[in-house]
Amino acid sequence: MPILLLFLAWLFAVPAWSQPLAIESGLIEGVPGDGVTIYRGIPYAAPPIGDRRWREPSQPPSWQGVRVADHFSPACPQKGTYPPDQPEEATSEDCLFLNVWRPAGESARPLPVLVWIHGGGLLNGSGSLPVYEGSRLARQGIIVVTLNYRLGVLGFLAHPEHISGNYGLLDQIAALTWVQRNIAVFGGDPARVTVAGQSAGSNAISVLTASPLAQGLFAQVIGQSGGMFEPMEMMENFRLSGAEKDGARFAKGDTIEALRKLPAESLLERSFDPHPIIDGHVLAESPYDVYRQHKEIPVPLLLGYDQGDGLPFLAGRTISAGNFRDELGMDFPPLLVKLLTPSSVKDDAEAKSVAASVERDLRFRWDMWRWAQSGQGPVFFYRFAIGEAGHGSELPAVFGGSGPMARYWVNFIKTGNPNGEGLPAWPAFTKEGHRLMSFADQPRAEPVPGEAALRRIERVYLFPRVLLRYWHKLF
User: What are the two backbone dihedrals, phi and then psi, of residue 444, each rounded to the nearest 5 degrees?
Assistant: First the structure.
């Protein structure tokens, strides 16, 4: 009898797994978490391996029986990780998987959905890192989806042999398409999908809002420290012809057929700078031009930046009053640096402050400010300034689930407006009133600080853009 009692006690102490759900590929079963059910490692596209390397994603494989979604997939091939304090993961080219967190129990109505696109400079990161754990947000009454997408040369190589790049973006579109077709099975509302991301993930979302391929895949956008509104249309390597030249140099005479046979690890050893391409398929024009013509996907926007966004890019470098322009000239065109910085500063401390501000504004803040001004729908702008507020430092506050920032985010995901009971009022960012929510010791609404510097960048970027526009009209 004691043995039987012990067995029964063990049996009922083990959490029961969820009932299987029928998605397009087959039956899937999640595992219980704290107030949530978690589905890890769901394939949303076929493995991009062998002959499928550098091709558009295709339908995921189906399976017989019940697939138990109890472990994350490998991350896509990469070196290092982002954020840098996150653990390194096993990698594989068979990496096109996503993860779903949903509240435990039944809901009276379909739930809003957050689809998270990770950052990492299009070089590293994954949807399964601990910082993106979705349980705390899901317990607030939303469904959370995170995903992997191809990175580096495997995700963004263009080549004259009909390899057009943007495969990582096409993966994101495929994942969003999967959500539209399957999320109702999990209790989600495909008409209330918010796509959100940080850094390169936010960059990618600014491109998706400008892509006709993403039409109808999301209803709202959250962009954190990342946008593609600088003059990419004027840079040769952002156009397909220039990207193909870069790809041919990367190939070093190898054919695409030969490159497809090389191990992914050997390709990662070669230098490559991944970025979106104006390829005529995913992106016909730069996001700036699409927004200028009001041809973007018009959705509510929640956008912002970290006060110290530029700090990681100066880490380990000696910035002084005598060299700050030279140091910035290693990251940006020297003429641009000359136009945007004082010719001299009084001491090294001021030099470091100027350098950090330029790094922040040219990499992130100007793009977010320009994006906020360009959107057709309601726009809510923010600044994260808690502690040092370095790049990515707001992520724990967002995924924490219970603090003010997470509460604003959940309100926006649910309603398209971050405001809600018990929170300071967050005014919309409008052309007449450039106000944002500042997250410091306490959230407070205030005018956008330091707009004079942003307007200088705007003027510097605007002149060649206007010249190019009229040049095309004349010739």
Answer: -150, 145
- Given a contact cutoff of 8 angstroms between Cβ atoms, the answer to whether 206 and 223 are in contact is yes
375's tokens: 């959107």
Instruction: Tell me the CATH number of domain 300-475, given options 3.30.710.10, 3.40.605.10, 3.40.50.1820, 3.30.465.10.
Output: 3.40.50.1820
What lies within 8 Å, CB to CB, of 142 at 6+ separation is 103, 111, 112, 113, 114, 410, 413, 414
Determine the Cα–Cα distance for residues 88 and 86; give it in Å rounded to an integer.
Answer: 7
Show the 3-state SS of 401-415.
Answer: CCCHHHHHHHHHHHH
pLDDT tens, residue by residue, 291-318: 999 999 999 999 999 999 999 999 999 9
Distance CA 354, CA 361 (A): 10
Q: Tell me which residues of the chain have a pLDDT lower than 50.
A: 1, 4-17, 475
State the DSSP string of 176-222.
HHHHHHHGGGGTEEEEEEEEEEETHHHHHHHHHTT-GGGTTS-SEEE
Please state the domain extents for the chain: 1-162+230-298, 300-475
Q: Which residues of 429-462 are buried (b: 16+ CB within 10 A; e: fewer)?
A: beeeeebbbbbeeebeeeebeeeebbeebeebbe
Phi/psi at 204 (5° precision): -60, -40
pTM beyond 0.85: the answer is yes
